[in-house]
Input
Amino acid sequence: MRTNGVVRDASGKRLVCASVLAALWVVSSAAQSSVDPALLKRLFPAATSFSPKGGDPPHVKALIADPKTGAQTPIGLAFWTTELEPLERGYDGPIKILVGMDMKGVLAGIIVTEHHEPYGNFSIEPPQFAAQFKGKDVRDRYRVGADVDAVSRASITMGSATRAIRNSSRRIARQYLTAPDSSK
Output
């Protein structure tokens, strides 16, 4: 296309836009790919070390070392809900939650690290929200108003956060945990 003697190349602009978007995606993926060791230690205080994040679905293993042999044994898995359930949205976007689960499918805890919820300050930020998930089995119902406390005026936020925790935990459990022996 020619405008005022200057040739405009629409495909060049598209290429630049695509390159910028790809770079932003890589940067945001890299930012989410690491997990702050302090957060992991909050979920698994007994862990002596943590594996690098990897696998499909992505997770970090919390490990404990045998004092005699030095062998590392996994005691739990940590994962981001936003990586396993990227389409789950709260009222105003994704709610980034780090979930810790032991090797039996029981949640060690959750940490809400980022959100843009207008009612987050009294729904998902208070310690009571995270506390109610500690000790919850992956096979529990996870129903707001039943086994998860509801907060009035924040039903979209509460429902979204709860579904993200439930669905990502179940996905990790199906992939990495051994089913309990039902013959007992």
Notes: The first strand starts at residue 2 and ends at 3.
